[in-house]
């Protein structure tokens, strides 16, 4: 029986040893599987983090670009507004300068505009009372010679320059109308001189 007990002990020892080895293999496999899962999880976490960082950078870049574009747009609008104010100021000064030039120069301008806009036909030349009173003889002579059918009448509608009426047709040659009709050309020229 001792021998049988010794054989039984030997079998039990071997079973224990095999069980221990199987347990170690299972533990090693479990550890290896766990490490593999951890490595995969870390790689996935890095990939997700990299994607999130890239997305955040793109969003930040787009936001910065929009902010930059908006700032550039506001700056351009501000500059345009200032340029328009400067141009308007120069145009206003030009109108004042035309009104304040000497009588000979002023009526010289009126003569040029009459040659350009007027025609020798029955009609009325409307001018301000002050212009009619300040009209030099040379301009009166010019009107009688070139436009003998026009009658001169005072008008409250005219502060500077004149209006020619031929029946229902009017040629508005007031300073304001001439500046207004030439505004785009004047602005382009002033813009070139001031800003280019």
UniProtKB/TrEMBL annotation:
Molecular function, one GO term: proton-transporting ATPase activity, rotational mechanism
The keyword Coiled coil belongs to this UniProt entry's keyword annotation: yes
Keywords: Coiled coil, Ion transport, Transport
Keyword Transport: yes
Coiled coil regions in record: 20-58
A single GO cellular-component term on record: proton-transporting two-sector ATPase complex, catalytic domain
A Pfam family assignment: vATP-synt_E
InterPro entries membership: ATPase_E_C, ATPase_V1_Esu
Domain of life according to the entry: Bacteria
Family: Belongs to the V-ATPase E subunit family.
Protein name (Swiss-Prot/TrEMBL): V-type proton ATPase subunit E
Species whose genome carries this gene: Candidatus Monoglobus merdigallinarum
């Amino acid at each position: 029986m001792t021998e049988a007990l010794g054989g039984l002990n030997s079998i039990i020892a071997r079973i224990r040893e095999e069980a221990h080895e199987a347990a170690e293999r299972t533990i090693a496999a479990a550890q290896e599987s766990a490490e593999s899962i951890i490595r995969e999880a870390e790689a996935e976490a890095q990939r997700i983090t990299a994607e999130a960082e890239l997305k955040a950078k793109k969003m930040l870049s787009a936001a910065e670009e929009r902010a930059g574009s908006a700032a550039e747009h506001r700056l351009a609008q501000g500059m345009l507004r200032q340029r328009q104010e400067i141009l308007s100021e120069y145009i206003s000064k030009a109108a004042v300068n035309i009104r304040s030039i000497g009588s000979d120069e002023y009526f010289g301008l009126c003569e040029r505009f009459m040659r350009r806009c007027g025609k020798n036909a029955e009609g009325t030349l409307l001018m301000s009372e002050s212009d009619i009173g300040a009209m030099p003889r040379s301009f009166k002579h010019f009107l009688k010679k070139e436009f003998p059918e026009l009658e001169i009448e005072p008008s409250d509608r005219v502060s500077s320059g004149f209006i020619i009426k031929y029946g229902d047709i009017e040629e508005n040659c007031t300073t304001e109308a001439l500046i207004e009709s030439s505004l785009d050309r004047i602005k382009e020229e002033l813009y070139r001189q001031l800003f280019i």
